[in-house]
Design a protein that fits this description.
- This protein is an alpha/beta fold.
- Strands 2-10-9-8-5-3-4 form a 7-stranded mixed β-sheet, sandwiched between helices. It has a two-stranded parallel ribbon with strand order 1-12.
- Helix 4 links the parallel strand 3 and strand 4.
- Helix 1 crosses helix 6, helix 2 crosses helix 6 and helix 7 runs parallel beside helix 9.
- The two termini are 27 Å apart.
- Bound molecules: pyridoxal-5'-phosphate.
- The site of pyridoxal-5'-phosphate (PLP) has 12 residues, from helix 3.
């Protein structure tokens, strides 16, 4: 039976990527060695490392005045590293509470320094985002989460901001074009749109580096990683190997513009199905800010929802259960999820509704 993977993260990886990984896993480029058993200082690894950095720069159309880092610790480590590096005593950092992940980033920042909240979406259970925001021009930075993986909303475009904008892009990086003129720092764990868990891509404007706190332990200081080109210590080589293959795959599909067109198409298919169901399925997010990556929806009651999840699982759909904190249904439509799988899900949703007499 075919399996349709809609996992929220770690998430689907293209079949072609696994085919190539299998070939090179025990014999990397004819060396007779696996990448997993050679020095990260070897020419062989160095070449891969620099190819990945170049591919990221090319695909993201990243200007030269930004550095790219490949770090461990997940996006979660960035929740701490950002304020440790950039939130000095006496300063304030601003956080936009768009959803569950933004709250986590803010909670860590509060342990390190002063914060304020120009927007607090908890008041309406994370169902909308502001059209405009007002920030303190003296603040150290503004942090936002470009796509809320759990709550199913996404900034349709990044807000204009008079201070440095830092963005957690873990669940929508490389799914749409970015205006680097608006961003000073962006980060993303690889396991949603780029590959597997273990490596986090951090992109930062080089002019931020003067602000990094010199008193920090070595690994926590961005400046050390930039100076050493992310080879300060042993990088997560296996995750970087997979990242290389998946970036290559994205490039072959047509790059970011192709991924953006697919995201638009896949998410429209699902939102149309929900909106045309006469209330059988519902999504309560302000339609302007619905996520193209994580489509969440509810059924009319818990029993119906349970039935939907059981029957969809039996039909080969994986990962549709909403986050444990939230319930409901969630279909994650990352880069590796194809239109065919999405169309299968639409067909299942329509059949299910018919069978329930909805
Ligand atoms: C998954 C996710 C994280 C957490 O990533 P880890 O790599 O597990 O630390 C943070 N932010 C967002 C938006 C996410 O989707």
């Amino acid at each position: 039976m075919p399996v349709f993977n809609f996992n929220a993260g770690p998430a689907k990886i293209p079949t072609e990527v696994f085919t190539e990984l299998r070939q090179q896993l025990v014999d990397f480029n004819g060396t007779g060695l696996s990448l997993l058993e050679m020095s990260h200082r070897s020419d062989c690894y160095q070449q891969l490392h620099h190819e990945v950095l170049a591919a990221l720069r090319r695909l993201l159309a990243l200007p030269d005045d930004f550095a790219i880092l490949l770090l461990g610790g997940g996006a979660t480590l960035q929740f701490a590293m950002i304020p440790l590096n950039f939130l000095n005593a006496g300063q304030t950092a601003e956080y936009l509470l768009s959803g569950s992940w933004a709250v986590k980033a803010w909670q860590d920042a509060q342990k390190i320094g002063q914060t304020t909240l120009p927007f607090d979406g908890r008041q309406h259970h994370f169902t909308s985002l502001p059209a405009t925001i007002t920030v303190d021009p003296e603040a150290a930075y503004l942090h936002l989460t470009s796509n809320e993986t759990i709550d199913g909303l996404q900034w349709p475009e990044l807000p204009d901001c008079p201070i440095a904008l830092f963005a957690d892009m873990s669940s929508d990086i490389m799914s749409r074009r970015l205006d680097w003129g608006k961003i000073k720092l962006a980060y993303a764990g690889a396991q949603k749109n780029l590959g597997c868990a273990g490596v986090t891509v951090v992109i930062l404007a080089k002019d931020l580096l003067d602000r990094c706190q010199e008193t920090l332990p070595a690994y926590l200081n961005y400046r050390n990683h930039v100076r050493q080109n992310s080879l300060y210590n042993t990088p997560p080589v296996s995750a970087i190997q997979l990242l290389a293959l998946q970036l290559n795959w994205i490039e072959k599909q047509g790059g970011v513009d192709a991924m953006a067109a697919l995201s638009e198409r896949k998410s429209s298919l699902l939102y149309q199905t929900i909106d045309n169901s006469g209330g059988f399925y519902s999504n309560l997010i302000d339609s302007r800010v619905r996520s193209q990556m994580n489509v969440i929806f509810q059924l009319q009651n818990n029993d119906m929802e349970k039935k939907f999840l059981q029957q969809s699982a039996a039909a080969g759909f994986v990962g549709l259960q909403g986050h444990r904190s939230k319930g409901g249904v969630r279909a994650s439509l990352y880069n590796a999820v194809d239109v065919a799988a999405t169309t299968e899900l639409v067909r299942f949703m329509q059949d299910f509704q018919r069978r329930q007499g909805g």
